[in-house]
Write a structure and sequence with these properties.
The chain is of the alpha+beta class. Among the domains are: 90 residues, no CATH class; 104 residues, no CATH class. Helices cover 55% and strands 10% of the residues. The protein is built from 13 helices and 6 strands. Strands 1, 2, 3, 4, 5 and 6 form a 6-stranded antiparallel β-sheet that branches. A hairpin with a 5-residue loop joins strand 5 and strand 6. Helix 2 runs antiparallel to helix 3, helix 4 packs parallel to helix 7 and helix 8 packs across helix 10. It starts with 9 loop residues before the first helix and ends with a helix.
Amino acid sequence: MTENKKINNQEFIDSLDRTISFLVINDEQEKAYKLLKVLERRYLEQKNEFNDDLKTKEFFENAIAKLQYIALPLLDNEKIVEIIGNSFRVALYLEGYNLEQKWKGKMISILDLKERDDLKEKCRKALFFNKERITPNYNYKTISDWLKNYIERVGLDKVNALQRSQYLLEIRSNKTLSEADKLALLTLISFYNDLNISSLTPQGLEDEANFVYDDKPFIFKKGFLEPVEKDKNFEENWSEFMNLSGLQAADALKNVETSDKNNTLQDSVFTKDNSVEPFNVNEILGKYPPSSLEYKAVKQEIERLRKNKKNAS
């Protein structure tokens, strides 16, 4: 795009539309962010040209919003609060977009858990008062309408699990809503629920840890240790994984030992570079103080696994 390139032409509009679809499907957030900065500048420079063409103006505003959501982890906190309060509808109906994954990416990029909670609170308020219309032909038309109805039916501080399941079932079986609307509403409610769970609790902590215990892979996720289910290619992939790390699978799987001296568990952990290395389970929570809920949650799960193993032997 040259400096004097006009964006208000059909060729550029079609190209931009195709490019955004590509960026969503391939999760190219860095490229989306670069394009966002260029498009925002050009749109502001040429904005007056759209005064008599509201349809084209709306297209470019939606295009900017789409790029913002694709690049969400790279945006500053203030901008995220702004777009959630003003253009969240875009995220709900953007085909191929994974809001949960993007939000998790943003949360993990914030090391201070209190800062995460601060952003959650601001986003929750912005979302609650969002007046965008998502179901104009239904009793509840706006995002705010739906959230108010959801809270009235299910609760907020103490959510009734049974009532929540019933509420979601009613959405899924509602014949007056389109499939796109149903998916949008389920996404909206799921996201709003996540915003209400503190990152300082095990259930709200976005960080995950993968490791092996008793020859079985586990993942610490949302306060629980979940076993990783094996698929039909698991054994083949597992052996290849071990070989790539320079270890024999049989030896690595036996790398589990308990030290009575310091009561710590030695195990193997998956690392980002696809290697396996011995580690002390306490290192999973090395960034958390021993008094924190996250530390206690993992320790409790490890003790449970250790006890189960002892009882089984």
